[in-house]
Write a structure and sequence with these properties.
Layout: H1 3-22, E1 31-35, H2 39-45, H3 50-59, H4 61-71, E2 75-82, H5 90-110, E3 114-118, H6 126-138, E4 146-153, H7 155-172, H8 177-183, H9 186-190, E5 203-206, E6 225-228, H10 238-250
Parallel strand pairs: 1-2, 1-5, 2-4, 3-4, 5-6
Helix pairs in contact: 1-10, 2-3, 3-5, 5-6
């Protein structure tokens, strides 16, 4: 891109963002899920390796949370690593996990947000699971935005884990199989999800132009609104976020109908 175009954007975008923010309606989402997609494709586009793309993506997480604070979002769920991603080669997975550990530790050190890991932590390397738990413990008393860190996360895995937890809970009480089956309900399963006690996401944002869920918050997103952004995650800007929030606010929610 020509230097004059970059300069023009630097001048115009802040004014445009301020106008969008001033005109933001009142019916904003409480919980936003974000699929941080496109790190590897962004890296290829700039002639770098995957690790460079993941680091650029990690660097964009803290600004996103600041934008969420700015408009009053209460809960954010960030999908950083799926269960399918755990099948990647060790050469790619090891540096990616290290980048995630560093990013989560940095968020915890900021003491601005309350972190909550969601995912099958038992499938992760012990060191990664430990860092996630430490971040949660370190921010437990922070009075700020609740941030779900989805690492080793898969929607099907979450539902299976929830049902398993429900069955084990009743089995420990000596409940019969028939009574367990009779007691299974939408509400009882929801009480065993990774996000139990939280509102379901009102809005799910996916970057990189892909228009599919890929297993993200399968249960919780049944009535969510979706917003697909063409930008790769490292290029996702404040103006892109504000557009997504504005698009949500302008929709007539039908809650899955």
């Amino acid at each position: 891109m020509a230097d004059w175009k970059r300069g023009l954007r630097r001048v115009l975008y802040p004014a445009y963002e301020a106008r969008v923010l001033r005109r933001m309606p009142d019916n904003l989402p409480k919980h936003v899920g974000v699929m941080l997609d496109g790190n590897r494709r962004w890296a290829r586009a700039v002639g770098r390796d995957s690790a460079h793309g993941h680091r650029a993506g990690a660097a964009n997480i803290e600004p996103l949370l600041g934008w969420c604070d700015e408009v009053g979002i209460e809960v954010v769920t960030l999908w950083l690593l799926s269960t399918d991603n755990l099948n990647r080669s060790e050469a790619e997975l090891a540096p990616l996990l290290e980048i995630i550990e560093e990013a989560v530790a940095s968020l915890a050190d900021a003491r601005r947000w309350r972190l909550h890991p969601v995912g099958a932590l038992d499938l992760l390397p012990a060191s990664t699971a430990q860092r996630l738990k430490e971040a949660e413990d370190a921010t437990r008393d922070v009075d700020g935005l609740l941030v779900n860190i989805a690492v080793g996360y898969g929607g099907r895995q979450e539902i299976a884990d929830a049902v398993r937890s429900l069955i084990l809970e009743h089995a420990a009480r000596g409940t019969s199989v028939e009574e367990i089956a009779a007691g299974v309900s939408v509400e009882s399963i929801a009480e065993h999800l990774y996000t139990k006690g939280q509102p379901d996401p009102d809005l799910v944002i996916r970057t990189s132009g892909e228009q599919r869920l890929g297993g993200f918050l399968l249960w919780q997103s049944a009535t969510s609104e979706f917003y697909f952004c063409e930008a790769y995650w490292p290029d996702f800007r404040r103006v892109d976020f504000l557009r997504a929030i504005r698009a949500y606010a302008q929709r007539e929610r039908r809650h899955g109908a």
